[in-house]
Structure formats: C-alpha cells, structure tokens
Amino acid sequence: MTNPSSGSFLLFIVFQSFGQHGRELITSELALRILSILSEEQFLPKMDRASLNGTLENVVIKIVPMENLNGRKLVEEGNLCERRNGRGVDLNRNWSVDWGKKEKDYDPYEENPGIAPFSEPETQIMRKLAISFDPHIWVNVHSGMEALFMPYDHKNRTPDGLPSQQMRLLLEELNNVHCHKRCMIGSGGGSVGYLAHGTATDYMYDVVRVPMSFTFEIYGDNTATLKDCFKMFNPVDHTTFKRVLNDWSAAFFTIFKLGPHQIDVHSKAAVSSMDKWVSIDEYFDGYLMGRRNRYGKKMEVLEVGMQEIRTYFRLFLLSSVLLLFMFCSRISKTGRQIVSAIPI
C-alpha cells in the first residue's frame, strides 16, 4: 500500500497475543502454526509462496505465542482447569479500563483481577509492547467457544460510528469464509453472556487507540462437562485439531490481506488511524525507539522511558563498583606502595 500524498510504501502493523489463559493450549498451537507459515516452513492449502509474499509485503507482525507461561506450566502439571497466572491472577482482568468491578456472579477463582491494574509482570510487558508497537490491529486469541468479538467487554454495546462498522465488516468476512458462519459476532459484553472488566481488548481500543481491536474464540466443545476443562477448551482428536489450525491460520492471513484496505484512511473518522501509517525507512531507522507522543499517552511513554533510564543508571553503578573492586584487588596482589605524584 502507498501513501497517496507521497507515493512511499506504508506499513500495516498487527499485534497478536496467544495463551493468555493457561488452560487454552490450542491458542499457542495456532501461534506456532502461523509462525511456521510466516517462516515458510509450512504453507496454507490454496496459498502459494508468491501469494504469501504479496500479502506480507507491507505488513509488520508481532506475535506473543504464550503470554501466560507460568499458568501453562500449572496446566501441564495436571491442573487442567487453571486459567490464571502463577500468582493466581486472571491476566484478562488486570488491565486498567474499568478494572476491579465485580459482577453479581463474580468468581474469585476464575476472575481475580489482582491487587491493582497492571500488578502482574505479564500485563506490564504487554502494555509496553502495545505502546511501543502502536498497531493498527490487535487480536487476543482465546478458546472456549467460537466467536469473533469487538469492543466492548465491560459494557453491552459496540463503539459508535465508522470504526465499529469497519470492524464488523472484517469480522463478517472472516465468519463467512473461515468460520463457516458458526462464529458469534458482536461486542464481548453483549454476546458472551456476561460483562468482563479490565480486559486487554478494551484497553487496546480505549487507551492505545488501536483502530481494530478484537478477541477471537477459536474453539469450544459445549458438550464437555465443567470438570473436563481440557476437552472444553481444546480439540482432543487429530482431525479437529488440524481443522482448527488450518481454518484460523487462514483467517489471520485474510486479516493481513484485507486489514490495510478495511481502514478508510481518507475518512475524518480515521484521522487517528492515519497517524499510525509509517514508511518502511522510518520504521527501520528506529521507529520503535523514538516514538513521539500519540493519543494522549505521554505519561505511559514517559514511564517506560524512566524505567529504562533507571536500569541504565543501576548498570552504571554496578560497573563502577566492579571496576573499583578489580582495581583494589590488583593493588593488594602487587603489594606496591602508592606514591603521590605531587610533592607533599
């Protein structure tokens, strides 16, 4: 895609997270399949190398294949129903938008939001990645049902105006082509049957201002009992496993292909989206390192910068102490007397 005013190539930026809940193992399997296709180790059926390269020519993709490593370890150790991280916090309730609100059916085991927004290292890392990467599309991948959700999770409605229409058009295309019209479409809060507070997708849309912010639910077995968490959230036979990975890998590559065209950069409603388009030269010359303030995120960018400065200062102090120790050790080994060069 080119910038109409300059003719330069522009980048379309996609940020994806998988494995946010420990028990949803199939999501990280999908991340690995997408990475394998991107590295040309595998290919999608009906997609050749030339078509793949054409789709990805101006797309930059960041994938977090397993956000909740410690929660995943607990599941692999036999706690198949665990969705939280190693500290017992639900990472999809630990973000700052409407954080901490509890519905009447609140389950502390399932939805513990933590002691404060971003109290967990996992959400802190994801926030920093989102701010620095500043994507056009965010997709948070889960399992437990088949659905394509857009904001909002914490209230029973979708955003107003053109952005909502653009998101819905893309989701309807994915549902028709890849989800075989089985997927539920709409806001998470209005479709799933309960409101969720402090979620990643609501933060990405409201704070990071990602024009298209989604939560995908890629698999669910509604015949499984509540105690059979593995079957409820993950396919248990090879045929279904292969189908899920093929269908949803293809869906993501449809996003890579259609996403840049779905956002209307000429409309007034998409002015904020236009600011996200950068040239390839600008990107590789340090776009991620020298971000200017956007969307009122001054304090969060400043916070990240101050943390880096503090880290460098600690390293400087540590290196100074080590050099002093080495110098003193060298003097003690030589046993030589130090004589001042200036007469006393």
Automatic annotation (TrEMBL):
| Species lineage | Eukaryota, Viridiplantae, Streptophyta, Embryophyta, Tracheophyta
The superkingdom of the source organism is Eukaryota
UniProt record, GO biological process: proteolysis
An annotated Gene Ontology molecular function:
zinc ion binding
Can you tell me which family this protein belongs to?
Belongs to the peptidase M14 family.
Domain Peptidase M14 per the UniProt entry, residue ranges? 1-258
Q: Which residues cross the membrane?
A: 311-328
Which Gene3D superfamilies does its entry note? Zn peptidases
SMART domains from the xrefs? Zn_pept
Keyword list, A-Z? Membrane, Transmembrane, Transmembrane helix
Active site (UniProt): E217
Instruction: Name what cofactor the protein needs.
Output: Zn(2+)
Any one Gene Ontology cellular component term annotated for this protein: extracellular space
The UniProt record lists the keyword Protein biosynthesis? no
Q: What is the official name of this protein in its record?
A: Peptidase M14 domain-containing protein
Tagged with keyword Amino-acid biosynthesis: no
CDD domains on file = M14-CPA-like
